[in-house]
Amino acid sequence: MRMPLSMALGATLMVTGVAATPSVAAEVGPAGSAGSASSPGPAAMTMRVDDVVVTAKISLPPGSAVEGSIVGTLSITHNGTSAAMRSGRMTMVDPEGRDLVGAQFVASGTADAWTSNVPLSADAASGIYQVSVVAEVAITTDDGVVNVPIRTSNPVSVPFRAQRNIPMIWTSPSSAPAGSTISVSGAANMKNLGTGDYSPATAQEVKVYFDPAGDAPETLRATLTTDARGYFTTRQKAGASGKWRAEMPMTDAGARAVWTITSAERERNTSLRQGSVSATQNGFTAGDHLMTHDVVVGLAPVQRRVDVGSLGFSIGGKSGWVSADSRRGEGSFPDGFRVQKELVHSGVGTSHVTFTFNPTLPAGIYDLGIRDAMKACSAPDWDENDAASGASNCTHDVLVQDSTVATIVVKRASTTTVAASATSLPGSQTITLSGGVRKVQLVSGGGAQDKPAPNTDVKLYFDPAGSAAPVYKKTVTTGTNGTYSTRVVTSTSGRWIAKYAGTSLQASSQAAVSITVG
Predict the structure, then answer these.
(1) Distances from the Cα of 94 to the Cαs of 121, 126, 156, 245, in angstroms?
(2) Quick one: CA dihedral 110, 116, 122, 125, positive or negative?
(3) Which UniProt keywords apply (predicted)?
(4) What is the spatial distance between Cα 514 and Cα 420, in angstroms, rounded to a whole number?
(5) Quick one: pLDDT at residue 336?
């Protein structure tokens, strides 16, 4: 039979003696005592030769700390005055069924403790090793020296796991508008038990968790498998700022590994815009994902950030740009307007540019283009075993270029107002709603102004108090001075809402006034 050992790292093996003469007996009891059959204890195996009692155990290194060899420490307690090692060693059978023979026990530098070093082959595999110990110690007593044989009665199953690392994880990009799809990617490696060298951790399970900022709990987002390069990736909508955690769970073959990184999600109040582009060159593929949101510009300029996240296992180069090109001409720009900004690379897989829009630029749709001299990644070189080595072979040039990866819509702002002739009513009553619409518009001679908007439709809705949805009531049109006035019957408490729907060039706007009835 074989005795299973706890899968915890840092195993301790209990060993027992075997009778060599009728005067030798083995008993189970607490460590350091002769013990009795009525009080068995799991701490150690105790054995007796004549009046000499010895308790022995073998301690092994943590299963993920093994490199080139496994050193076991045999330590004993006894009722003599001193002890010496006469002979003995530790032996093992590896997961491939090969016998491994350790060196003779030598003094460890600690009293009553000796070590045996079992060398491992260069191709030593992770997994369950069967460990045995055979030794003989000489115990000095007041009556002389007694030789006590020690050995494991059965091989003990001990897991030795390869050290697994996730030395590199990144999000592409690290900051993005709310609702964007980002990449969470990483690289993992595994240490060879025999040589200590690192290689890609292939076909390893990786669980990706997200812990949003605030009180919401962490959730499992993806269960992945590393590829032949040790890479893993998933596309995710974070839904908030927070921390991403990648974990390789403990297995018989590998130790648990965890890495955490933070990403940020920025608030937005206009429509999300995003698109992707990729290219293949010399058998390697690289790509970018662009994320931004629409612009509503008043009289003051508005800055809009465009985030760029690398797709798959590729990273932005040291040169590149993003462009915004209007589809129509207007005002001082009858032939349209184009702006181009150099990419700002702020980490692995993440870049951005910032555009400034003002009301004199053409309104409408802008095409977002990109030119990015990227690097695609092959299998990483883990010689250094650090974070940078995960991207050490991201050296393959791929030019990613497209003039229309995504679009962004720029509209000039509008303002809608509404007021009521009375806001507190004793019962059902007819009241007057009045207000107006103003729009930011180009003016002759250049520039822009916030001006009243004549002949503009305004839709009126009533939103009753409670959970009921707003109800459309009527449409009014502003006069030549951009204002409107209309009479409405109000019988319950709620809000009157005035909405201007906007156009392809002008942003919508709305306002509300609360009424109390009764």
Answers:
(1) 10, 9, 12, 34
(2) negative
(3) Signal
(4) 9
(5) 97
Q: Using an 8 Å Cβ cutoff, are 260 and 184 in contact? A: no
The number of CA neighbours under 13 Å toward the Cβ of 9 is 15
10 Å CB burial of residue 36 (0-12, 13-18, 19+) is: exposed
Question: Which residues are bridge partners to 419 per DSSP?
Answer: 434
pLDDT of residue 385: 65
Backbone angles phi and psi of 159, in degrees to 5: -85, 130
pLDDT at 14: 56
Check: CB of residue 308 under 8 Å from CB of residue 346: no
Q: 378 near 228, Cβ under 8 Å?
A: no
Sign of the torsion angle spanned by Cα atoms 94, 99, 100, 105: positive
SS (H, E, C) 27-65: EEECCCCCCCCCCCCCCEEEEEECCEEEEEEEECCCCCC
User: E strands of 237-312, at which residues?
Assistant: 242-248, 257-266, 272-281, 284-293, 295-297, 302-311
Dihedral, 251, 255, 258, 259 alpha carbons, nearest 10: -130
Q: What is the DSSP letter of 392?
A: T
* Residue 31 pLDDT exceeds 80: no
Q: Which residues pair with 10 in a beta bridge?
A: none
- Cis amide prior to 452 (ω within 30 degrees): no
Alpha-carbon distance of 226 to 164, in angstroms, equals 12
Residues 498 and 453 sit within 8 Å (Cβ to Cβ): no
384 — pLDDT class (breaks 50, 70, 90): low
Examine the pLDDT at 32 and tell me if it is beyond 80: no
Dihedral sign, Cα of residue 447, residue 449, residue 451, residue 453:
positive
Q: Please state the pTM of the whole predicted model.
A: 0.80
Query: What residues pair up with 171 in beta bridges, in sequence order?
Result: 184
Q: Return the pLDDT at 153.
A: 83
For strand 113-119 and strand 106-107, is the pairing parallel, antiparallel, or unpaired?
A: antiparallel
Q: What's the Cα-to-Cα distance from 34 to each of 27, 49, 142, 314, rounded to whole Å?
A: 7, 11, 18, 66
The share of the chain scoring above pLDDT 90, in percent, equals 76
Dist CA 1 CA 176 (whole Å): 59
C-alpha–C-alpha distance, residues 160 and 60, integer Å: 10
User: Between the CA of residue 359 and those of 213, 271, 299, 328, 411, what are the distances in Å?
Assistant: 36, 19, 6, 14, 8
Residue 356 has pLDDT above 60, yes or no: yes
406 in Cβ contact with 309 (< 8 Å): no
pLDDT of residue 291: 97
Amino acid found at 340: Q
What is the DSSP code (8-state) at residue 105? P
